Amino acid sequence: MRWTTSRGGTRTGSARWTTSRGRDTTVNLWRAGLDAVPPGVWERTGLRVLILADNRLTALPEAIGRLRRLHTLDLGHNRLTALPAALGDLTGLTRYLYLHDNRLTDLPGTLGRLTGLAYLNVGENRLERLPDELGAMAGLVELRAQHNALTTLPEGLGRLASLRELWLRGNRLTGLPGSVDRLRELRELELRDNALDAVPEALRGLPLLRRVDLRSNRLRELPHWLGEMPSLEKLDLRWMDFDLDDERLRGLRERGCVVLT
């Protein structure tokens, strides 16, 4: 296979084009040293899996929108600063979308069209906000947005009725939107290394929430309702600047919840 790089030279390499049971066609260009995606990739409209991770990509063309049969797209560990709106045309994405470890400062609202996507990773970027349209991604089960520069989250987050895991470590969050109280399927919440000064009220009563990581925040006290969280199995409160010898914590421990302080 031959392709032309963005530097104008010709690079020869081998991509793995594989077929599984005659249905799932995969192009794997992981660590291929690419500055640009080979144009021929955008002509393969039957692709189901496209892996472009660990290259030097800085941009993607709108032509990516042609690959409407993709169910998995891996763009992690590149140098992308923006995403084309056509990413929202990939309505066949139902499994994984990896956008982590790039240089993104914003996400297109068109991502909201990916209503069947189960897993989205936008961690390790430079995001200051998430689009409210994210709330339309009704199929999301796991959302990872750790190590960005988020100060708030959109109210639309509460529309993610299927969400089970939410990873937000290493941002600048001072609270959560009230709509989080509608995440009735949420099991795991990571809020480590943020700027929270209180346990978000929106967590109260979430029926299936099992694990909450609040390490290294700015909490000064614990809410009276903490012991009422019905499914809590693990609560991490390490590296806080206040006395955690609290009756509420004893109650949690007595019922079998692991509390780390």
From TrEMBL:
Q: Which UniProt keywords apply?
A: Leucine-rich repeat, Repeat
- Taking every annotated instance into account, which residue ranges of this chain make up the domain Disease resistance R13L4/SHOC-2-like LRR? 95-169
List the residue ranges forming a coiled coil, or say none. none
Does the keyword section mention Repeat?
A: yes
Q: Which domain of life is it from?
A: Bacteria
Which residue stretches belong to region Disordered?
1-20
Q: Which SUPFAM superfamilies match?
A: L domain-like
Q: Name the Pfam families on file.
A: LRR_14, LRR_4, LRR_8
Protein name per the record: Leucine-rich repeat domain-containing protein
Q: Which organism is it from?
A: Streptomyces pactum
InterPro entries associated with the record: Leu-rich_rpt, Leu-rich_rpt_4, Leu-rich_rpt_typical-subtyp, LRR-SigEffector_domain, LRR_dom_sf, LRR_R13L4/SHOC2-like
